[in-house]
Amino acid sequence: MLVSRPTHSLLGLVVALVLASNAAAADLSGCWEGCWNSCATGHHGKLRATICKVDDAHYCARFSGTFFRVIPFRISAV
C-alpha cells in the first residue's frame, strides 16, 4: 500500500501532538517576581508570588504587590 506524502506528514503531526500532550507539565513551585499592569486603567506595580504544589492537579499561590507604589496588597488562590 502506498501512502501519499501529505497523509504521511499529517500522520507524523498527529503522533507528535499525542506524544506532546502526554508529556509531564513543568513544576511551577517556587518564588516568582515581576509586575502587573491593568489594561483598563493603566495602573501598574510590582508583583511577587510564592507557588506551592498541593497535589498533581492543584497549586496554592500567594501573591503580594503594590498599588500606586505605596499601597500593599495580598491575595491567595488555589
The general outline is: elongated
Let me know the number of strands: 4
What strand order characterises the main sheet?
A: 1-2-3-4
| SSE pattern | HEEEE
Total helical elements = 1
- The average pLDDT is 77
- In this structure, how is the largest beta sheet organized? 4 strands, antiparallel
Q: Helicity range of the residues?
A: 10-25%
Judged by helices, strands and strand pairing, the structural class is alpha+beta
Uncertain spans:
1-9
| N-end to C-end Cα span | 53 Å
What percent strand? Answer: over 45%
Lay out the secondary structure:
Elements: H1 5-21, E1 30-37, E2 44-55, E3 58-67, E4 71-77
Antiparallel strand pairs: 1-2, 2-3, 3-4
Structural features, described:
- With 78 residues, the chain is an alpha+beta fold.
- It has a domain of 52 residues.
- Helix content is 22%, strand content 47%.
- It has 1 helix and 4 strands; from the N terminus they run αββββ.
- The protein has a 4-stranded antiparallel beta sheet with strand order 1-2-3-4, with no helix packed on it.
- Strand 2 and strand 3 form a beta hairpin.
- The chain is elongated.
- The N and C termini lie far apart (53 Å).
- The relative contact order is 0.14.
